[in-house]
Write a structure and sequence with these properties.
494 residues, alpha/beta
Amino acid sequence: MSKLSLDNIMRVSVLSALRGVADVNTSALALFTDEVPLISNYGDYKLYLEPLSVAEHFGSNSATYRMANVVFAQNPNILTGKGYLVIIPQSQSALAQPATILSSKTVDFTQLTADDYFLRAEVDGGSQADIEIGEIDSTSISTVLSSLNSSAVTLAGLAFTLSGDVTSAKVTLKTVATGESASIVINTPSTAPATGTDISTLIGITGSATGSDAGVERLKDAIIRTAGSVNYFGIMANKKMSDALLEETALLVQTLDKLMFVASSVEADIEGVFKDITDAGLTHTRCLYYSVSANDALDFSAGYASRGLSVNMSGSRTASTMHLKEITGLVADTGLDQTVLDSAYNNGVDVYGDFGVPKLFTSGANSFFDVIYFTLAFKVKLQIAGFNFLAQTQTKIPQTEEGMDGLKKAWRGVCQAFVTNGYLAPGTWLQSVYFGDPEDHVRNIKDQGYYIYTLPISAQQLIEREKRVAPAGQIAVKSSGAIHSADLVIYLEA
């Protein structure tokens, strides 16, 4: 007689764990180089955990190897934060490129309800003009794109592209023309015309850009090419850029969750292009000055980047500031005096001075490095934690308070990790802005260093519920800050 299956009584299914997004590596540093690798099958990039392999691939006399050596010489360095160095050769035969501006934010096009949008711009060296767009059809991402690429926009020699969805889209504006003669200058109207609404700031398309001729790839274009294919958090290059390209690249990096490190040995840059970067609020670009030589300035950027990105965000008391730290292998800048120090301090430029011992002197004019670094890390880790909570369920997260508790638990784990690493700390809430229950807000900041609040499910708008969007969440956090200097008064009695 045949044996009956146990499935008649006991049915067992094995469910594999669902994949989530890998955590961001905040200690991954990219070195973009215009030097050609010695091996023919190098590919678009390679990862390194030590410098000798870089010497094999680029030669021991290369700038790429020299900077890699400085990166790994620091103590601590990117390896301390479980990072790596990724070297990305710039293409030697890049095609001519259009002028390109990426939006500085994600855009909810359903909120753009005017019927007469326009863009004020100069295109390819032409005169300033108001380019008509008209009404935005937010039915779908394709209808939005069709609206943006109005006949007037096309006629002006421009083209919009979009990624994402209607309520969270990233916008790119390009010229149709390519080469160095291609350019865009977005002019924000000081006074609006009698009719029409300027769309530039609403969609985060601001500033200016130029194209490039065929040949060696620009850093800006190399970042755009590789940002989605390899994970890196820090950016540096083996060559100093022109002022115009540096400002364009800084504007691009500001739209990304990345940091760029640039250094100069030219004193005029402190109150020149570096001041412009600070004045424009381009905090993702960290400007450094080291007068000795151009190569030494590049080495300064390599050492600074490795030391700065060395933090293990999952560790205990690992949070750090760059102020008064040392760069291994670098002597104090012999060309630094009080006048230069004051200029650097006022214009957001960090320097390496002799205080009896060589020490970094950092400026908060363009915000402090650690503030920007930890804020970006905190942001992306919250985003990943929330995504993975939603993505790693076999069923669904109910649109109930129980479901919201699970989402807040995921965010709470990130907040607690940043308390543990020392970036956040319990303290007194000093701002006048409160949300949720004010007493809960104050108590949580005092006891934990963070407060998470979401709108009750019962108060959520029906249209949001129908879209399966969670009620709006808000997080208040208290930074631990840092002590960089002190004042002391001595009272002496005879």
